[in-house]
Amino acid sequence: DAKTTQPTSMDCAEGRAANLPCNHSTISGNEYVYWYRQIHSQGPQYIIHGLKNNETNEMASLIITEDRKSSTLILPHATLRDTAVYYCIVRADLIQGAQKLVFGQGTRLTINP
Amino acid sequence: DAGVIQSPRHEVTEMGQEVTLRCKPISGHDYLFWYRQTMMRGLELLIYFNNNVPIDDSGMPEDRFSAKMPNASFSTLKIQPSEPRDSAVYFCASSHSPTPQYFGPGTRLTVL
Q1: Mean pLDDT of residues grouped by 10 in chain B (112 residues)?
Q2: Do A97 and B45 lie within an 8 Å CB cutoff?
Q3: Which of A43, A45, A99 faces B95 most closely, judged by CB atoms?
Q4: Could you write out the DSSP letters of every residue in B31-65?
């Protein structure tokens, strides 16, 4: 699986858009980009994933550059409840059908009132 | 759906004792994963099952750790004998390929 690089920490004001970057310069053509987050004392929570195209769901948007070497997770209107550690994970799907996720250190996002 | 259920939520035991952690995956999911999280090592995959069969246990730290999945709705992770360095939060997750993994709330294990 490709290695990812994320900033250790970020701050964002409540109500503003939070943009979390991730570098994955060694990503392979069949590898997906996944984002999970972990709110304090809880289990990791799936947010979104994508292969090439930008993706949006009720939680966030995922912007993947054309060369696929980096991506940005966007929380459009951050709230205090979005304070968490955000993990960017690159992996190939369908290795025996399972997602063998490898978690790095992630980005600790703090939303400030 | 109730999500992934783990029990107990907290476990405090003494060194040398046997510890059993339990997990009930989301109904219909055919993959089950056990992870361990510590401050030093972060989140690590220990083992995962597909259709109740262990597929990859390369993350299991040593022979003191064992995991079973006797049926599609139940799995256990056992540590025997437990040691202080096993203190961590243990998460269970499940998925139905190719959907994402859904994690349980975790079991916080403290070995004194």
Answers
A1: 92 97 96 94 92 92 94 97 96 87 96 96
A2: no
A3: A99
A4: EEEEEEEETTTEEEEEEEEETTEEEE-TT--STTE
